[in-house]
Write a structure and sequence with these properties.
single chain; mainly alpha; two-stranded antiparallel ribbon; two-stranded antiparallel sheet; 10 helices; 4 strands
Length: about 240
């Protein structure tokens, strides 16, 4: 299969996510959706009657939850993923202004690096929520691990946090549906420079971003260097 850079249109595109990052996202998203779907089947009587096989649904729910952190843990072997996790975990001065503009639904130019403040908040919240769900779920699964009072509290937290996760994930999907270029970036690893300049004006794709195809560490520009916005390369201006 030819690399995207071998096509004329790819010369204008910027590398955003490597193959490892995309597969971590796909696997994590699949496990999360399975957890949400099976939870709905366990808690909503109408769905429970429609699907049946309650014990099978319980087993699928339990194991999809236990396996949820695995793709990310395996993906930590990717330098690009570790670098992006650092970006997601670092809130910058401009992120507050971005959130204020988003809450006011302002269409003025918002400062954002590779990830905007909304994406950082979502990543932080869903990571913490997943850990809480995993801990409370294990207490509910292995009843001998804690006394009844702890298991009762774990069930309460697990149930209500599951509802919150469902709502937040639905919002995440809604935002993704409204941004085809962002979906293309997660699907193929490449994005349009005009979109990057508009949505992430402070993101500077550099040579260290790697090759989204996973073939090599070369980028999308000529001479093996990823081409930045406004005619800039990773090593400077032309």
């Amino acid at each position: 299969m030819p690399r995207p850079a071998d096509h004329p249109a790819a010369d204008r595109r910027l590398p955003r996510f490597t193959r490892a990052e995309r597969w971590v996202h796909r696997c994590t998203a699949t496990l999360m959706l399975v957890c949400i779907a099976t939870a709905a089947c366990l808690y909503l009587p109408q769905l429970a009657e429609l699907v049946g096989r309650r014990r099978l649904v319980e087993v699928v729910h339990e194991w999809s939850g236990v396996l949820l952190p695995v793709p990310l843990l395996l993906g930590l072997g990717s330098r690009a993923l570790r670098r992006d996790l650092g970006r997601l975990n670092r809130f910058l001065p401009g992120d507050g202004a971005w959130l204020k503009a988003a809450l006011r639904r302002s269409f003025r130019r918002r400062r954002a690096g590779k990830f905007n403040a909304g994406q950082k908040l979502f990543a932080s919240w869903i990571a913490g929520a997943t850990l809480v769900m995993l801990g409370t779920g294990l207490l509910m699964w292995f009843t001998h691990l804690a006394p009844l009072a702890w298991r009762t509290g774990a069930t309460f937290v697990h149930d209500w946090l599951a509802l919150a996760i469902g709502v937040v994930v639905a919002g995440h999907l809604y935002m993704a549906l409204g941004d085809p270029e962002a979906r293309r970036g997660m699907r193929t690893g490449w994005v349009d420079p005009d979109w990057a300049a508009r949505e992430h004006p402070e993101w500077e794709p550099a040579e260290e971003e790697g090759d989204p195809t996973g073939v090599s560490d070369a980028g999308a520009g000529s001479g093996g260097r990823p081409r930045g916005r406004r005619g800039r390369t990773a090593t400077g201006r032309r």
